[in-house]
Write a structure and sequence with these properties.
Largest sheet: none
Order of helices and strands: HHHHHHHHH
Number of helices: 9
Number of domains: 2
Helix content: over 70%
Structural class: mainly alpha
Strand content: under 5%
Distance between the termini: 74 Å
Number of strands: 0
CATH architecture of the largest domain: Orthogonal Bundle
Length: 202
C-alpha cells in the first residue's frame, strides 16, 4: 500500500506559517521566502502545495475567514427562524467574534485589497455572501420583510459587529459592549414591529 499524500498537511502548515507572517510582518512583508522559512520548507514547496502568490493569498483568506462562517452556521443549525435570529445576534456580538491573531491577518488582507483589485473582489465576495446569509435569516424570521430592507439591516449588523470587534481591545466600559448587542436587537425588533403593523392595516 502506498504512503498517504501529505499534501493537505503541508498546505495547512504553509497557511499557518503565512498567517503568522502576515500578522507579524504585514502582507507586503510576507514574502514567499519568509513564509517558506517559517514553515520549514523551500519556496518551491509553497508553489507546489499552494501555488503562486495570488493563489497563496486567496488560500490564506479562505483559511482565516472560513472558520467564522462555519461557527455562524453551527450557531444557527437546527433552530426555528426566530431562534436563529437571536442566535445570530448572540454570535455577532459574542465571544466568537473576540479579537485574535486571525483578525490581524484579515485586517492586513483588507488593507492590501485597497491596492489590489483582484483581492478586493475576493474579499467582497465573502462579505457579500455573509450579508446575504444574514439577510436570509432576517427574512425567514420577520414575515413581510422585503429583500432590500433585509440586506440593508444585514449590512448594518455586519458593520456594527466588525466595528465592535475592532474596538473591543480598547478599555471602553462593559456597558458599551452590551449596548451594541442591545442596539442590534432593537433594530431587528423595530423592523419586526413595522412589518407587523403593515400586515395589520386594512
Amino acid at each position: 500500500m502506498g504512503r498517504p499524500s501529505l499534501a493537505e498537511q503541508r498546505r495547512k502548515q504553509i497557511l499557518k506559517a503565512a498567517a503568522q507572517s502576515v500578522a507579524t510582518h504585514g502582507l507586503a512583508g510576507s514574502t514567499q521566502e519568509r513564509i517558506a522559512a517559517a514553515a520549514g520548507m523551500s519556496r518551491s514547496h509553497i508553489r507546489h502545495y499552494v501555488g503562486n502568490r495570488d493563489e497563496l493569498i486567496d488560500a490564506l483568506w479562505d483559511h482565516v475567514i472560513t472558520p467564522y462562517f462555519e461557527a455562524m452556521h453551527a450557531a444557527l443549525t437546527d433552530r426555528p427562524p426566530d431562534a436563529q435570529l437571536r442566535a445570530l445576534v448572540d454570535f455577532l456580538f459574542g465571544p466568537q467574534m473576540a479579537r485574535n491573531e486571525d483578525d490581524l491577518v484579515i485586517e492586513a488582507l483588507i488593507s492590501g485589497a485597497m491596492h489590489d483589485v483582484r483581492l478586493r473582489g475576493r474579499i467582497y465576495d465573502s462579505y457579500s455572501r455573509l450579508e446575504r446569509e444574514i439577510a436570509k435569516t432576517i427574512r425567514e424570521a420577520v414575515p413581510g420583510c422585503e429583500s432590500a430592507e433585509s440586506l440593508q439591516l444585514a449590512y448594518a449588523l455586519v458593520c456594527m459587529a466588525f466595528g465592535h470587534s475592532t474596538l473591543a481591545p480598547l478599555p471602553f466600559p462593559a456597558s458599551r459592549h452590551a449596548g451594541m448587542k442591545a442596539l442590534a436587537t432593537q433594530m431587528i425588533e423595530a423592523l419586526r414591529a413595522d412589518r407587523a403593523g403593515q400586515a395589520a392595516r386594512p
